[in-house]
Amino acid sequence: MTLLHDDGTSVLTTTDPRDGSPIASYPVSSADDVRHAVYRAREAAAWWAGLAFGERRRVLVAFKAAIARDAKALAATIARETGKPDGDALLEVMLTLGHLDWAAKNAEPVLKRRKVKAGLVNYNQHATLGYVPYGVVGVIGPWNYPFYTPMGSISYALAAGNAVVFKPSELTPGTAVWVADKWREVCDRPVLQVVTGGRATGANLVRAGVDKVAFTGSTASAKKVMAACSETLTPLVAECGGKDALIVATDADLDAAADFIAFGALGNAGQTCVGVERVYVEQRVRDALVDKVVERAKRVVVTGDAPTYGPMTLATQTGVVAAHVEDALARGGKAVFGGPESVAERTVSPIVLVDVPEDSDAVQRETFGPTVVINAVADLDEAVARANATDYGLGAAVFTKDARKGERIAEQLRAGVVTINSVLGFAAIGALPFGGVKGSGFGRIHGADGLREFSVPKSIARQTRKAALNLLTLERSPKDMHMVERMIPMLHGKAR
Ligand code: NAD
């Protein structure tokens, strides 16, 4: 939790969501502080971009190794700031280092300058395409996965040759500062810097002259960031919220589906952008699935020394969860496990809702809590139509034993990523780009597309000899133009 930082005070103090005890205080970076960081980053960016791919790779792999050797300390910092169990935090570290490794090792093959075909008519041109860094990337991150999520931008931006100024969530600055300290252990240049503070500091970063902004957070904040970016035509990648649907076909392995629904909906207290918030199940297996999900929800422990998940990191989110549940019930939905009484001051026990009207908040808006709506559908076409009928489009999942059917449904779902017979199965795959459509944002992190997201394509065409047809001149000859007239139907006149 943070105190008073957005109203002009100079310090923000974090607290442990598990017991409210203060953790540490951090400066609120002013507009001048942020500009200074970007100024330093610009110098560092020139140096970093000037290194060969292999040299950057060596620094990034050393960075990864330094973090890995101290992974438990980082996990403890994440756990303290977010309230999540230590094991969850440690998994977050492992997942993130996999991406850092992938980005470091694939930057050269993906981004190095390559020859492209110039085509018959341009036989006298040697054409190459390379990807050059933007310069300084401003990264703004959320609190729910305070290492994994921003590092999805940071790792790929650094590997592509940019310097980064990172503004973490006001709830989790300690994780970011820890990471920046590790950077300084492996590199004495300010290629990665952290500025701390709240929304105002984030807004300062957007306006501090960065060459690209990588924003991860709510859709509402993304719109404000995009408006600010438009003032300077600063490009933006926006990773926003979701309302992921999971479809269960009659032929699905219901135990596996229920396991993954419980994990995807309740894990991390539901505070996962690609968490499962809605389930559409074919009518015939609806009761069996609901029973199995409830069975698993009953086994969840939210108090004591070894909870399944922690408290809500953002205390005010309990109000959103309660409002969505109450709205669902008021409109005729039913709670088959838990209910409004499951929402305590800081902790929310699992809530399983069924038969919730499609236009209610629990179906249409991001709840970001350990709740799930299970609605029956007549068939898979209806499931797909309902899954696609929200303003979001981040992730989705489908459960079926029929691989072809699964792939077909995956193609029909309007989402950036779809998993078949699992949830979050993509998250550790370095080669798969990640990002949303519609209100879930645009642009991609991870994978080759993630590396290109933080690069500018730069084309070079080198003339190797004089062209037979001299067309690039103010004094074209009638003979050459006659040749052009004959060439057009020859080159493009056939419709195939
Ligand atoms: P948030 O939008 O409140 O804040 C995110 C970050 O943006 C914070 O660092 C905040 O200080 C900063 N910020 C807010 N307003 C700003 C502004 N006007 N200008 C500049 N910076 C600003 O989101 P949150 O509560 O921290 O995170 C939860 C949200 O993030 C959820 O919607 C979740 O789905 C989403 N999320 C998305 C992904 C993804 O990859 N798509 C991953 C994790 C979380």
Automatic annotation (TrEMBL):
Keywords: Oxidoreductase. It holds the Pfam family Aldedh. PROSITE patterns: ALDEHYDE_DEHYDR_CYS (PS00070), ALDEHYDE_DEHYDR_GLU (PS00687). It comes from the Bacteria. InterPro entries: Ald_DH/histidinol_DH (IPR016161), Ald_DH_C (IPR016163), Ald_DH_CS_CYS (IPR016160), Ald_DH_CS_GLU (IPR029510), Ald_DH_N (IPR016162), Aldehyde_DH_dom (IPR015590), Aldehyde_DH_NAD(P) (IPR012394). GO terms for molecular function: oxidoreductase activity, acting on the aldehyde or oxo group of donors, NAD or NADP as acceptor. Residues 1-26 are annotated as: Disordered. Coiled coil: none annotated. Residues 11-460 form the Aldehyde dehydrogenase domain. GO terms for biological process: aldehyde metabolic process. The active site is at residues 239, 273. Belongs to the aldehyde dehydrogenase family. This is Aldehyde dehydrogenase. It comes from Microbacterium trichothecenolyticum.
